[in-house]
Structure prediction request, 402 residues.
Amino acid sequence: MRLCGPGLWGIAALWLCASATCFVASAGAVPPGAAVGSALPKAKWVKHRVIPGERLKEIGKRYGVSTRSLIRWNKLDPKRPRLRAGSRLRVHTRLVRPARERIRYKVRRGDSWGRIARRHGVRESHLRRRWNPRSRRLRPGDRIVIYVEGDAEQASSGGGTMQVSDTAFVSRAGSSVRPSLLLEGESAVQDFLGAEAAAVGMPIVPVSPVSQSVGWPSGGRIRHPLQLPDNPVLYTIRSPAHAYGASHTLYHLQMAIARWRARTAYGRELVIMDMSRKGGGRLRPHRSHRSGRDVDIRLPLAPGIPDGTVPIHADQVDWDAAWDLVHALIETGEVTYIFLTRSRQVRLRAAAVRAGASDAYLAKHIQYPMREKLHTVRHSKGHTKHIHVRFKCAPNAQRCKE
Prediction:
């Protein structure tokens, strides 16, 4: 383990870097995103709400206490301790109290108990027998109850020092490992983002790391949703109500566009179209865009085409600028794939060749002229006026599904 001096990231934090994970030592409250079970400096009383089918042994395991203690603290019958769903138990613990969320899920065609359980990270037996004992068969349109684990709630530490893993923004593409963001408002955030912005000569708006993608892009949601911040130097947001995303997505989207702006002479507006609704869920007419990882970006306009034009025809697009943008997105190492129709990929590939892209690079990232969907840029019907970018799950988003 080596000690990284403040230098570039400011003197507000000391970074302790080991292999692929970085830690920051800070006093005060436990930040959102701290792992469930993070130890507090001293024990405190908390209240636990019992969910259907929950047992004392499971509750004790959650808080690191014994069943006997739970019985004593709550004056339960030692011989036949009974729990009632919805009741609250007093627990004296040093562990961060985990948050739980009760959701009502609408069954879709093709769903099964096992598929729904895997999608939400719960046990199938709990889903069927504990929470929905009367629902034996699943039919499209039915609503079932699911209890999902949330992020650790904020808890007062009462002083002392705590190490909290922050791997949400470790770049997979970079050679050096570094956390990009901590809590919004901390001086370390400002120092680090200032350094990143200075490196590309563009402003990057701080983004809190609390927002996480949950589930699949076509059937998930956003935990602690954040809106893409206004940054008119980089982009224009078409619909703020549809511009919510996971923190990982918001940060890397800004960085990719900043690098693109810094490297090109393209000075016209770049329109961010649909991302996700607040909290995620269905965003018509899209099939995906539900978990804060999908971003539609209108293709940049060619010289002479009036501002505000929707590029219906391929000749209305500045394909050299479009390729530079796609290349900047790929460079983040955080993009799963980019949708663009096959007919438009012909123009994009030609621009990549003009920019000096190697045959190996083209073969890896652009589907045309192949048919297999193994490339970063791949065909999807209807993507003629914009590219659809899907970002990867953040490394610490355990319930995010690729």
